[in-house]
């Protein structure tokens, strides 16, 4: 038996409450609702594959289906506690991978080695320290039903973050609290940490990772029918990108755009995400706006469309898109080649 520190491993709260279950102490964090064992019994992991059970086709399909919508082809993946490599096999059916590496201590690694490019048998922290695993080398890091077994999950999350490229994706799955919606607590002696949505997301946030998708009620098996699944990544820097809307295929081949609507979205949206060099002029029916300048381009009355032809008009309005489109077609149909709505550029 050994003792772990009292302070919350998820959020860092210094003095959580202490409760005793089955004669063993564990914490209850009032700040993030994390619970962790204080008294930890020894557990032999040599013959035990973490994440081993729950290998039904339905579960593997659900896990892969959670990850792949956010994943590009050609990723370099690293799975911590990959067991026999079932998830790797399922993901490889759906996406191409430049490489897929695993870490597994149990004998399941032999099967995993037939399904992956390489399987390591030492902790990730050691592999990074020795250079066997390259820092910043992976586009996707995964770990399913591992984190709850570790004394200091923060250390392995730090190592995972270190292994990730700046815009890599992290997939984690753990039991959601007890892991069963009807059981208030779980006394699986190999589980040291009992995560919930708030504690897992706060642990990730402390390592610079923002949770972009989360799901509870994910079925692992009958005992852990309520698992928690998250995808996290480093938040994008708050930087304007004038190509973001301008490069949309709906505007392809168009040099100069007429923007219909010089309202609030000019400053709130177009100023950051539409290249102002592409704007010929604005039109607006509000006489108070006519004669003004937005993003360096003049604001004119709609009649300005009568000069010239083959205009591409961007409807810069969400709520009046339909009436503006009807008005353009009725009044300026012969002059306008293409009508694009801001809503289309945001799809
Ligand atoms: Zn906490």
Terminal-residue CA separation: 56 Å
Multimeric state: single chain
User: Which percent band covers the strand fraction?
Assistant: 25-35%
Question: Biggest sheet, open or closed, and with what strands and sense?
Answer: 7 strands, mixed
State the strand order across the main sheet.
Answer: 8-7-6-9-10-13-12
Describe this structure as you would to a colleague.
Helices cover 24% and strands 27% of the residues. It folds into two domains: 187 residues, Vaccinia Virus protein VP39 (Rossmann fold), CATH 3.40.50; 104 residues, NAD(P)-binding Rossmann-like Domain (Rossmann fold), CATH 3.40.50. With 347 residues, the chain is of the alpha/beta class. The model has no long low-confidence stretch (mean pLDDT 95). The structure holds zinc ion (ZN). The site of zinc ion (ZN) has 9 residues, from loops.
Please give a quick description of this structure.
By secondary structure, the chain is an alpha/beta fold. Helix content is 24%, strand content 27%.
Tags for this model:
27% strand, elongated, 7-stranded mixed sheet, 10 helices, binds zinc ion, 19 strands, 347 residues, 24% helix, 6-stranded mixed sheet, Rossmann fold
Secondary-structure topology with pairs:
Blueprint: E1 2-3, E2 17-21, E3 24-28, E4 35-36, E5 39-40, H1 57-67, E6 75-80, H2 86-94, E7 97-103, H3 109-115, E8 118-120, H4 124-130, E9 138-144, H5 153-163, E10 164-175, E11 193-194, H6 197-206, E12 210-218, E13 227-233, H7 243-246, E14 257-260, H8 265-273, E15 279-283, E16 293-294, E17 297-300, E18 311-315, H9 321-332, E19 336-341, H10 342-346
Parallel strand pairs: 6-7, 6-9, 7-8, 9-10, 14-15, 14-18, 15-17, 18-19
Antiparallel strand pairs: 1-5, 2-3, 4-11, 10-13, 12-13, 16-17
Helix pairs in contact: 1-2
The protein binds zinc ion.
Residues 8, 10-11, 13, 29, 31-32, 34, 199 line the site of zinc ion.
